[in-house]
Design brief:
Chain A: InterPro entries: AAA+_ATPase (IPR003593), ABC1_TM_dom (IPR011527), ABC1_TM_sf (IPR036640), ABC_transporter-like_ATP-bd (IPR003439), ABC_transporter-like_CS (IPR017871), P-loop_NTPase (IPR027417), Type_1_exporter (IPR039421). The complex is a heterodimer of chains A (575) and B (590). With 575 residues, chain A is of the alpha/beta class. Chain A is built from 22 helices and twelve strands.
Chain lengths: 575, 590
């Protein structure tokens, strides 16, 4: 579907409101038209040499129309805000929910910066088109159209002139739109790029200064800024043509309609009283067009953003939930997990991550995966969580393919402590409740105690009600990790995955965390993705990954004895 | 004159603008041309219809065909001239605007350069940079589309009033109060507008923050099945925004309604009044259409500006932030003249150094003394927040000491020029910043003249060459490109390559907190050992292995140096250091 028309689909659910806004717009326009008629009538009487008594009622009518319009104006403005907010909120929500469906796998391929600009700036930039241009276009077409037709019935020639001006003013931007759109977008983009480069420079300023490179970088950026300036001025000349044509159409249409009307009065083709009407009506006819032109220009940024938005909406799902997935009860007390000849590559097969991996983890067992970075350990977690599905082979949880489970059931059974934890903007309690929205305050505190987090939470300014996250109080890596562990306690899922859970913390917090983790692992099937010896040694079994393959398995002693990859890794660590 | 100007702005509670106007000086020519074309544009926009109206008057008054035809070419000229003036108004306005954008970017860059990193650290993150750039855009909008338009809005009604005065003096007198009231309307609502504007922006930022939370916390949301809960949160924030937008809209609507009502009432009044004058025989009747059209158009430039008035608070806030940065004083002054060129064996000494980040904050360093002998490696040890990083910041003169001094080979570093000082020192930071350019250029940052071969050698010495070659585009890979995911260890080794290329006699190393996987760890250690050779090295250390290898340890506690010695000696002593590392030993195996 054409991008332009597809944008209209975003109006779904707000069509009634939009229709109301258009009606208000038309209503307002008709008060203007009414005023034009009354003014024309007044004038006719003045020219006819009427008395003040004859004119006064007409002035009263105009005053009433003004009062009505004042009210309409207010309603229109409020309504505009209402619709804009409503549409943007819905669209933002829809996009975010789409993102949730795509899952974390989607982010492997897209930088979060891009997503942010689609979801935030992109949604904002659609406002002028959706809630400004579209209603205004309809008001112009219906309102101005009706006025033109009326003028045409008064005098066809004047009617044609007005229609011609209108056609130029509305049509020219549409015809030249691809050309102008390209030019305007080009210079917006080059400015955006320049902006990004400046931000890059400013953010890296310390590095630049340390290497005495800040002056050179500054000169480079300045030269680039000047270059962009020159190029912008060049393309500006062309893009200004657009609004010049619109202005000309409107101005010439109104002026010549009046003048030709006057001409036709002198030749007796038009009764003089109609000329007054024409004089004021042509003004009203072109009144909505100024706004229309402004909104059209503001819409361009939205057209560019629309592409990113549609891409997100059209992105095929990475993993699909089966429609007929029924909840499968886990009978065994603790789950067991099997990988059967699993192979997977990122980026649609371009970047191999695990090759032909098979293993079986018994109920209640504690296993560790070790290997260099890039050997495929973390991919195993992503596959178990179904952020991705393997290209071949299968993964069984309690003997059942994980694709048979609903997402909710599967993820309910697994708790993961990641290497880096994301904390949401909100209180400590809210952040913990992410794992279990129904948890009571006592349960929260108990989990925090078990995770060794209660102490530092209690020391925060408002305790559990302290606002944390990007825009709140920042916590250290160790503190964040303990909150993450507290979440895992709260979730209390039978399968626990620790994905390099202690790697972003300083040595002092590590001890506390290690302690908490040991507590957490009790009575669970546990998968450890690890690189620290202390965590690995206590595992029942160790799987050694290298070059995306599973190379060795066994416990610490057995593997050392084997003098293979594992023994080498250990040796490297001791060097 | 200047004082008078300030008083006017103060009276209007817009004194913030006065400061802004001084920035317009370099653009006087462009601004003047823009204002002239803008004025002509609006005048012609009035004169065209006025001529049309005059012709109507002539025709209805029984004029001849020829009376009208002769005016048609003039009408065409007026209409076309108006469009041309519009074009030139926009052209010059943008010309000024784009130049202002260039200049302000350059100015901001220079200002940040002057005060970094102190300023950046205080502001917490690079978000500051993004805000400043966005603010610059807002200023552009003010300079290019508000300041000039404001002048036009004053000039054009004046001229129009003068024309009306020619027709009949009383007409302009009747219209004047309406013009004044119109100009004053935004001020009636200013307080409410400022409050509402701020509130809406805060609420909008909250919704955006929530969306960012959703993107960055996606993994958590999905793995905790928190989707529904997240949606609820998003709704709550969105509803809040909705409420505040609505009340903002109500205020805007009211203001707009007043503007509309006052201007319309002005037109009715003039209609009634001039009709009265005509009936009295004071004015000839064919002027009536002209009067009506002039009256209808006199308000349009004013309405254009008053609608912009709604954004004044945004502009002022942006101006304040930008001015705040532009006017920040540098923290250290570069007045030293000496340099240590050619010196290879360098000794660093901290003598009784005291320092606090702000005068009312507690001391971070309290009479701390220690030294690093030429070629030695000294590690700073202590809990986080104890002053280790501060020490290395002071050595680089990001700040100056409050008491005591830091010397290199006996020379106070404040007596060295900053350039000379920084050329002596190389830093391998904890978290290296990679610029959005090729890996080669990122490494070459420390030495722009390095040949490709030298870059490669440095990369080899940092054990990162192999990794770079494994990338499809090798050294030409852009580090900002999507899909390029480098681990902490790899990034640090790039920093080490930079350090090799700079090849300076003093090395500062801020050890990473996160431990790396064994392979990376080994490569990193080896490359660091290569780098340290022959250099005077100061390390902010977190790892036992580093403690063991260092020639000396400086143990910091509450800003004071409490123990000095090597690992073995300090272990023997069984003091604070011993306590510190035994706490770690149980979990550290490296």
């Amino acid at each position: 579907m054409n991008l332009y028309f597809r944008l209209f689909t975003f109006l779904k659910g707000a069509r009634g409101q939009l229709a109301l806004k258009i009606s208000i717009g038309l209503f307002m326009m008709s008060t203007y038209v009414g005023q034009a008629f009354a003014t024309a009538a007044t004038m006719r009487r003045v020219f006819g040499g009427g008395s003040v008594d004859e004119i006064f009622p007409l002035l009263l009518v105009i005053a009433v129309l003004i009062v009505i319009r004042t009210f309409l104006f207010r309603i229109d403005e409020i309504y505009g805000k209402k619709i804009a907010c409503h549409i943007k909120n819905r669209l933002r929500e829809r996009l975010l929910m789409r993102l949730m469906d795509l899952g974390p796998g989607y982010q492997e391929n897209y930088r979060s910066g891009n997503l942010q600009s689609v979801l935030i700036d992109g949604v904002e930039s659609l406002e002028p088109f959706l809630t400004g241009y579209i209603p205004q276009l309809l008001v112009s077409l219906i309102g101005s159209g009706a006025v033109v037709i009326y003028i045409w019935t008064l005098d066809p020639i004047v009617g044609w002139i007005t229609a011609g001006g209108l056609l130029i003013a509305v049509g020219a931007p549409q015809i030249g739109s691809n050309f102008f759109k390209r030019i305007i977008l080009e210079y917006w983009q080059s400015y955006a790029k320049l902006n990004a480069q400046y931000i890059d420079g400013l953010q890296g300023m310390t590095t630049l200064k340390v290497f005495q490179a800040s002056k050179i970088k500054g000169q480079e950026l300045e030269a680039e800024a000047k270059d962009v300036y020159r190029r912008s001025m060049k393309s500006l000349g062309a893009s200004l043509l657009d609004s010049a044509i619109v202005k000309w159409g409107a101005a010439a249409g109104a002026a010549f309609a009046t003048a030709v009307g006057a001409l036709r009065v002198t030749t007796g083709n038009l009764p003089p009283q109609h000329l007054f009407v024409i004089l004021f009506l042509t003004v009203e006819c072109f009144r909505p067009l100024n706004d229309l032109n402004r909104l059209w220009h503001q819409s361009f940024l939205g057209f560019a953003a629309a592409r990113g938005i549609f891409n997100l909406l059209d992105e095929p799902l990475i993993v699909e939930e089966r429609n007929d997935s029924t909840s499968i009860a886990i009978e065994a007390s603790l789950p067991e997990l099997t990988f059967k000849e699993v192979s997977f590559a990122y980026s649609g097969g371009k970047r191999p991550a695990v090759k032909n991996v098979s293993f079986h983890i018994k109920s209640g067992e504690k296993v560790a995966f070790v290997g260099k970075s890039g050997s495929g350990k973390s991919t195993i977690v992503q596959l178990i969580m179904r952020f991705f599905d393997p290209q071949s082979g299968s993964i069984l949880l309690n003997g059942e393919d994980i694709r048979e489970y609903s997402f909710e059931d599967l993820r309910d059974k697994i708790a993961v402590v990641f290497q880096d934890t994301y904390l949401f903007y909100g209180t400590v309690s809210e952040n913990l409740r992410v794992a279990n929205p129904k948890a009571t305050q006592e349960e929260l505190e108990r989990a925090a105690q078990l995770a060794g987090a209660h102490e530092f939470i209690a020391e925060l300014p408002q305790g559990y009600d302290t606002v944390i996250g990007e825009r709140g109080i920042r916590l250290s890596g160790g503190q964040k990790q303990r909150l993450s562990i507290a979440r895992a306690f709260l979730k209390d899922a039978p399968l626990l995955i620790l994905d390099e859970a202690t790697s972003n913390v300083d040595a002092l917090s590590e001890e506390k965390i290690q302690h908490a983790l040991e507590h957490l692992m009790k009575n669970k099937t546990t998968i450890l993705i690890a690189h620290r010896l202390s965590t690995i040694q206590s595992a029942d079994r160790i799987f050694v990954m290298d070059d995306q393959e599973l190379k060795e398995e066994g416990n610490h002693q057995e593997l050392l004895f084997k003098k293979g990859f594992y023994a080498q890794l250990i040796k490297a660590q001791h060097e | 004159m200047k004082k008078k100007g300030i008083i006017i702005f103060k009276a209007l509670k817009l004194e913030g603008f006065y400061g802004l106007l001084s920035y317009l000086k370099p653009y006087q020519k462009g601004m003047t041309l823009s204002v002239i074309s803008g004025t002509l544009h609006h005048l012609l926009a009035i004169l065209g219809p006025a001529l049309g109206a005059y012709l109507v008057g002539v025709a209805v008054g029984g004029g001849e065909r020829s009376d009208i035809v002769t005016y048609l070419p003039l009408l065409g000229i007026l209409v076309t001239g108006r469009v041309l003036m519009h074009y030139s108004d926009m052209w010059f306005a943008h010309e000024v605007a784009f130049r202002i954008l260039v200049d302000f970017r350059v100015k901001l860059y220079a200002a940040i350069e002057r005060v970094a990193p102190a300023y950046l650290l205080k502001q917490r993150s690079g978000e500051l940079a993004a805000t400043l750039m966005a603010d610059t855009e807002v200023l552009e909008w003010f300079f290019a589309h508000t300041a000039g338009a404001f002048l036009v809005a004053v000039i054009v009604p004046f001229i129009t009033l003068a024309i009306l005065f020619q027709i009949h003096w009383a007409l302009s007198l009747v219209l004047l109060p309406f013009i004044i009231i119109l100009f004053s309307i935004p001020f009636w609502f200013k307080k409410e507008a400022d409050r509402g504007g701020t509130e809406t922006r805060v609420k909008l930022a909250a919704v955006h923050g929530e969306a960012i939370d959703g993107i960055q916390g996606l993994r958590e949301i999905v793995s905790f099945n928190f989707g529904v809960g997240y949606k609820k949160r998003l709704r709550k924030f969105s509803d809040d925004l909705y409420e505040s937008q609505l009340s903002y809209g109500k205020r805007m609507g009211l203001e707009g309604a007043f503007l509309n009502a006052v201007s319309s009432l002005g037109i009715v009044t003039i209609l009634g009044f001039s009709a009265h004058l005509i009936l009295l025989g004071e004015i000839e009747r064919q002027w009536l259409p002209v009067i009506m059209i002039l009256a209808a158009n006199i308000f349009s430039p004013i309405l254009e500006v008053t609608s912009m008035g709604r954004n004044f608070s945004i502009i002022l806030a942006a101006a304040q932030r930008v001015a705040g940065v532009l006017e920040t004083k540098e923290i250290v002054e570069d007045q030293g003249m000496k340099n240590l060129e050619g010196a290879e064996k360098l000794k660093i000494e901290f003598r009784e150094v005291s320092f606090a980040y702000e005068s009312d904050l507690p001391l971070v360093l309290n009479r701390a003394s220690f030294q690093v002998n030429p070629g030695e490696t000294v590690a700073l040890v202590g809990e986080s927040g104890v002053g280790k990083t501060t020490s290395i910041n002071l050595l680089q003169r990001f700040w100056d000491v409050d008491g005591g001094k830091i010397t290199i080979n006996g020379i106070d570093i404040r007596d060295l020029s900053i350039d000379a000082l920084r050329s002596l020192i190389t830093v391998v930071p904890q978290d290296i910043y990679l610029f959005n350019m090729s890996i080669r250029d990122n490494i070459r940052l420390s030495n722009p003249n390095a040949t490709h071969q030298e870059v490669e050698e440095a990369a080899k010495a940092a054990y990162i060459h192999e990794f770079i070659m494994s990338l499809p585009e090798g050294y030409d890979t852009n580090t900002g490109e999507r899909g390029l995911q480098m681990s902490g260890g790899q990034r640090q080794r790039l920093a080490i390559a930079r350090a090799f290329l700079k090849n300076s006699p003093i090395l500062i190393l801020d050890e990473a907190l996160s431990s790396l996987d064994t392979e990376n760890e080994r490569l990193l250690q080896q490359s660091l050992n290569n780098l340290r050779k022959g250099r005077t090295t100061l390390i902010v250390a977190h790892r036992l292995s580093t403690f063991r290898e260092a020639d000396g340890l400086v143990v910091l506690q509450n800003g004071k140096v409490t123990e000095i010695g090597n690992h073995a000696a300090l272990v023997e002593k069984r003091g604070y250091y011993f306590e510190l590392i035994t706490g770690q030993l149980s979990s550290i195996a490296v």
